[in-house]
Structures are given as structure tokens and as C-alpha cells.
Amino acid sequence: MHFRRQSVMNALIQEQKKRIASGEEINCYIDFLLSEGKTTLTEKQIGMLVWETIIEASDTTMITTEWAMYELAKNPKCQDRLYHEIQNVCGAEKIKEEHLPQLPYLNAVFHETIRKYSPAPVIPLRYAHEDTQIGGYYIPAGSEIAVNIYGCNMDKKLWENPEEWKPERFLDGKYDSMDLHKTMAFGAGKRSCAGALQAVLDSIYHDWQSSTRI
Ligand code: HEM
């Protein structure tokens, strides 16, 4: 996997190097990394940084959007409700960030999708540096802990009919605002998702652009 990842990243980076060599420089992340590569970053580090961006930023939002579109296509009533909500608020205009607070159903579709289809079903491992007690479990120093958020989000004790995709569970009055954190789709603690806000915006924009094409 490591070899394939490095090969794909090298190919992508080579294309960008060719662009830069042809004199076409852009003020963007890869150009910054390559200019740092001359002094502080190794080729391997640049490869990992580019991969990280693809996996953490693009892959997650794309997967979320695809599952949302899949569920909307299977649930015409939800699709109509979302379509009308967007039409009422935005009309022929493109959806803008300031519209988002007026689009509770779109928000509910997003949260329900990351609950049922979290793109990171098991969050990155945590390492216990010292003996710890958590949630009634004793965790000896040196253990690695994998939190299965998919399992938590399918837990019948925490969610009503968890296997059902039902955005309504995230509508006003039907949920506690802490439920938005209950999915833990962005992980938790100091290393939680650095792009959570960006992700909400990206996925919602994609949903909208795709929903106009259904
Ligand atoms: C639906 C979309 C997304 C989901 C569900 C998601 C989920 C996650 C999860 C579960 C983690 C691990 C958190 C932990 O270990 O506690 C993570 C880390 C991270 N995410 Fe996201 N993510 C999404 C989108 C994005 C976007 C759009 C960006 C960038 C703009 C991003 C950047 C990052 C970064 C940089 C980290 C590593 C943070 C660190 O290690 O300190 N993510 N994400």
C-alpha cells in the first residue's frame, strides 16, 4: 500500500513540477510544498502531505456526498423536501454560506449521512502513555485504542432504529444539539478533524450542486 501510495503521489507531483518548470506558478499548497522541498521538506514528506490532503479533505467529502445522493435517490420524499427547502430559500440563486442557517433539512441530511456512513468509521489509533480509566474500562499504559464510531452510531441503545437513514432525527425539537457531536464523525479531542467546518460547507455545496442534476 505504501509503495502504491508513493507511486501515485510521485506521478501527481511530477505533473505539477512540469507545470512550474514551464513558468506557470500558482499561489497554492503544492507550489508552497515544492518550494519548501528545496530546503526543509524531503520528497517523502511532500508525498505524505499531498496524500493527507487528498484522503482527509477530498475523499471524505466526496464519500459523504455520494452516500447522501444514494440515500436521497432511494428516498424521493426526503429528496423533495430538500429540493423545496433549497428552492424556497435560494430560488434560482446558487447556495451561499449565509443561506446555511436557513436550511435545517440540508443540515440534517448531512449529519444523518455522516452518522450512518462515516467516511472514517474507525478513528485513528490513540496510544495510552499511562495507565488510564475510560468509560469504565481500564487501559494499561502502552495500549493502542481504536474507537469504532460506526459501531457507536449503529448502537440501538443510543439511536432509534440506527440502521434507518432518517434526516428527520436531526431536525429541531427531535434532537438534543449535543447529538450533532454524538456521531463523533470528526473524531474528538486535540487531534479531531482540522477541517470539520470546511467539511460541512464542502459537503453541503456538493449535495446542492449534485441535487440539481438528479
Ligand atoms: C465529511 C468530511 C470529513 C470527515 C467525516 C472527517 C473526519 C475526520 C476524522 C474522523 C479525523 C480523525 C480525528 C481524530 O483522530 O480524532 C480527521 C482528521 C483530520 N481531518 Fe477530517 N474529515 C472530513 C473532512 C475534512 C476536510 C474537508 C479537511 C481539510 C480541509 C480535513 C482535514 C483533516 C485533518 C488535517 C485531520 C488531521 C488532524 C490531526 O491529526 O491533528 N478533514 N478527519
UniProtKB/TrEMBL annotation:
Locations listed in the record: Membrane
Pfam families: p450 (PF00067)
Gene3D superfamilies: Cytochrome P450
Topology within the bilayer: Single-pass membrane protein
Database matches in PROSITE patterns: CYTOCHROME_P450 (PS00086)
Keyword terms of this UniProt record: Heme, Iron, Membrane, Metal-binding, Monooxygenase, Oxidoreductase, Transmembrane, Transmembrane helix
InterPro entries referenced in this protein's UniProt entry, alphabetically: Cyt_P450 (IPR001128), Cyt_P450_CS (IPR017972), Cyt_P450_E_grp-I (IPR002401), Cyt_P450_sf (IPR036396), KO_chloroplastic (IPR044225)
Main location: membrane
Sequence similarity: Belongs to the cytochrome P450 family.
Name the record gives this protein: Ent-kaurene oxidase
Naturally occurring in which organism (per UniProt): Salix suchowensis
Taxonomic lineage: Eukaryota, Viridiplantae, Streptophyta, Embryophyta, Tracheophyta
